């Protein structure tokens, strides 16, 4: 069973916008994107790693990784202006789907993904063809209704994470049918696969697999990494 990790390295905006993608920022001495690359490599050294980044940030990403130690072998391709378009770019690089091949799509902004979680994704996708990691909702929820809002039972909901893992053939076929549709209706890869009639299985995510977006997230991630490394 061959495995490929498409890692979305970010940068949907122009360099003229000024801010460097958060995936390029340093976290405990390493760029955020490198953590995901190493996690997939450590889970299975045979995994093909593909980075997808906005065209205007490709050289900066290459330069950034060239200055680091222990960088897994990787391929780099340019992405689009949305998540869906970027995943499509990554799939085009892979070419025709190979029999018995799996593809994981992961947000580089989740640097704390563990090798154990990655393996759970591979194993569930091998059984089901489409697998998404989730964690329970811990906050109380309210659902908006016509006249205001009402309580929603959080036991019926889960928070979705990445990596989302699929049969290469199933993912590629689903994305090939996206052309001409309203891309904003698809919030992640599972929504694309599900829209075209495929069941999506769930596997156990991890509360530590946070998405680093805001300043507080960096503080939490640094603390978790320090705890992990003893």
Question: What does this molecule look like?
Answer:
The structure is a single chain. The chain is α/β, with parallel strands linked by helices. Helix content is 33%, strand content 25%. It contains 7 helices and 12 strands. A hairpin with a 2-residue loop joins strand 8 and strand 9. Helix 1 (32-43) crosses helix 4. The model has no long low-confidence stretch (mean pLDDT 92).
Total helices: the number is 7
Overall average pLDDT: 92
H-E string: EEEHEHEHEHEEEEEHHEH
Poorly predicted ranges: none
Helix content: 25-40%
Largest β sheet strand count, sense and barrel closure:
8 strands, mixed
Topology:
Blueprint (H helix, E strand, L loop, with lengths): L1 E9 L15 E2 L2 E2 H12 L4 E6 L4 H9 L8 E4 L4 H12 L6 E7 L7 H14 L1 E7 L4 E5 L2 E5 L5 E3 L3 E4 H9 L12 H7 L5 E4 L10 H14 L2
Parallel strand pairs: 1-4, 1-6, 4-5, 7-12
Antiparallel strand pairs: 2-3, 6-11, 7-10, 7-11, 8-9
Helix pairs in contact: 1-4, 5-6
Question: Nutshell version of this structure?
Answer:
It contains 7 helices and 12 strands. The chain is an alpha/beta fold and 230 residues long. The strands form 3 sheets. Strands 1, 4, 5, 6, 7, 10, 11 and 12 form an 8-stranded mixed beta sheet that branches. A two-stranded antiparallel ribbon has the order 2-3.
């Amino acid at each position: 069973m061959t495995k490929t990790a498409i890692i979305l390295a970010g940068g949907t905006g122009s360099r003229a916008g000024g801010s460097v993608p958060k995936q390029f920022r340093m976290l405990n001495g390493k760029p955020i994107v490198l953590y995901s690359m190493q996690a997939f490599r450590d889970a299975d050294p045979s995994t093909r790693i593909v980075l997808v980044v906005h065209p205007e940030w490709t050289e900066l990403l290459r330069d950034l990784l060239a200055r680091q130690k222990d960088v897994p072998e990787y391929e780099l391709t340019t992405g689009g202006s949305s998540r869906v378009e970027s995943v499509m770019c990554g799939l085009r690089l892979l070419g025709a789907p190979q029999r018995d091949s799996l593809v994981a799509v992961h947000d580089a902004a989740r640097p704390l993904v563990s090798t154990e979680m990655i393996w759970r994704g591979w194993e569930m996708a091998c059984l089901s063809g489409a697998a998404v990691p989730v964690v329970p909702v811990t906050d109380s929820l309210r659902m908006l209704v016509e006249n205001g809002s009402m309580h929603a039972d959080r036991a019926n909901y889960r928070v979705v994470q990445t990596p989302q893992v699929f049969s290469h053939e199933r993912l590629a076929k689903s994305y090939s049918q996206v052309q001409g549709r309203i891309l904003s209706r698809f919030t992640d890869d599972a929504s694309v696969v599900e829209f075209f009639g495929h069941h999506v299985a769930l596997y156990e995510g991890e509360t530590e697999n946070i998405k680093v977006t805001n300043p507080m997230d960096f503080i939490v991630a640094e603390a978790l990494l320090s705890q992990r490394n003893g």
